Every structure is written in C-alpha cells, then in structure tokens.
Amino acid sequence: MEQLKDDCLFCKIIRGEIPSYKVFENDDVLAFLDISQVNPGHVLMVPKKHLTNLFDYTAQDAQQYLQYIPMLANAILKSDERFEGMNISTNNGEVAGQVVMHSHIHFIPRFTGDGLKLFTRNNADKYDEAKYQAVCDKIKANL
C-alpha cells in the first residue's frame, strides 16, 4: 500500500488505523458505511490507491476501481426491502462538496418518504440552439 498518504483519512481507514464498518474489500477497493448515514445503508467505496478525485483517474484506474459500482449498488439495494432506488455520486473538488480529498463514490439508498431532497436547477430557458452548441463544442475540443 505504498501509494497511500499518511495524512489522509481514507488512507488511514484502508490501512486499518481507523476503524470502519467494512461492507466489501479486495485488492482494489474498500467499501464501508459512511459515518453520516444520510439514509441507512449509505456506503462509500474508495480505491486502495490515493487518488484525490476523478480528475486524477487514468482510463486504467477507472477500469480497475469503478467496475465494482454495479455489484455494490445491487447488494445495497437488496439489503433492505424498503429500498426502491439509489443515488450514486461523487463530489470532485471542494467547490463540488468534496470534504475528504481521497476519491470516493457515495451509494445512498432511497425509499419513498425518506425525506432526502437533492437540489438541481433547470436553466433550459436560458439556452438556445447556439448556446447549447457552443458549450458542446468547447467540451468536444478538450477530448
């Protein structure tokens, strides 16, 4: 585990220096209960290599670490008959709400009446065909 950092909370959990409720572990990833439990069954999956966020991933990293998302999502979904869906998300950078600077995927089970509200906004009325195309072209130029 030479690719872990000494001062990273999740690296310490991976090394076993901080206890966690492990859901799944192999050579690539560790999945454990989020201490906040936004909803019961809220799990975090972290790579066993220190990557700050998805911007640090190579294509090989993505293939190696993200392949476990469907397996974990299905196991969590089946763990409680109330679960009807799930938010699977990752915050990348402080401005996006990332608190621990070690890449992690949130699995938040959802059920009717859970009271959890996720806020988005619809700005479609501020765009026309030219604006959509300009945004699209800028992204394509950086692929």
TrEMBL record:
**What Pfam families does the record tag this protein with?**
HIT
Motif (Histidine triad motif) on chain: 102-106
Signal sequence annotation: none
Q: Name one GO biological process term.
A: nucleotide metabolic process
Q: What InterPro entries has UniProt attached to this entry?
A: HINT (IPR039384), Histidine_triad_CS (IPR019808), Histidine_triad_HIT (IPR001310), HIT-like (IPR011146), HIT-like_sf (IPR036265)
Q: Which GO terms describe its molecular function?
A: catalytic activity
Task: Kindly identify the residues recorded as the active site.
Answer: H104
Q: Which residues form the HIT domain?
A: 9-117
- What name does the UniProt record give this protein? Histidine triad protein HIT
Its lineage reads: Bacteria, Bacillati, Bacillota, Bacilli, Lactobacillales
